[in-house]
Amino acid sequence: MSERIGARILPIETLPVNSNLHEEFVALCAVYYSGEISDEEWALLQVHLAYCDSCHERFLEYQRITSSAIPALASAAASEIDNQEPESTQSLGAAEGRLMSRLDALPPNEKARRPSRLG
């Protein structure tokens, strides 16, 4: 299958892509791995990837990032969370006490807007 462009006949797979559309395909390469791509967008992206080497390489790079870098970052973040000491009832009580002291120190017109204590 081919199409005439000017004086040349190019196979369909080598036809130039509108630069605006191409940028949308570049964006879809990144969005694919977030799971926020529709079935229609995925179908169009697959066709585009079949003939656009630069987008195909970018798509593979996002795949490498998604399969290696993101899990490593998530693991590091989880490790930091696991190493934190949980808030104690005592520290939460102290924080509430400090908040109530500040609220009690407010001028009378400000106190009227203060919500009542839940505990």
Note the main attributes of this structure:
119 residues, mainly alpha, 5 helices, 65% helix, 7% strand, disordered N terminus
Query: Any idea what the radius of gyration is?
Result: 29 Å
Strand content: 5-15%
Give the low-confidence spans.
Answer: 1-15
Order of helices and strands: EEHHHHH
What about the largest sheet?
2 strands, antiparallel
Tell me the number of strands: 2
As a percent range, the share of helical residues equals 55-70%
- On the 0 to 100 scale, the average pLDDT is 75
Based on helices, strands and strand pairing, what is the structural class? mainly alpha
The main sheet orders its strands as: 1-2
Draw up the topology in text:
Blueprint: E1 2-5, E2 8-11, H1 19-32, H2 39-51, H3 53-82, H4 89-104, H5 108-111
Antiparallel strand pairs: 1-2
Helix pairs in contact: 1-2, 1-3, 2-3
Structure explained in plain terms:
A hairpin with a 2-residue loop joins strand 1 (2-5) and strand 2. The chain has five helices and two strands, in the order ββααααα. It is mainly alpha-helical. The radius of gyration is 29 Å and the shape is elongated. The protein has a domain at 2-82.
Q: Summed up, what is this model?
A:
With 119 residues, the chain is mainly α. It has helices at residues 19-32, 39-51, 53-82, 89-104, 108-111, and strands at 2-5, 8-11.
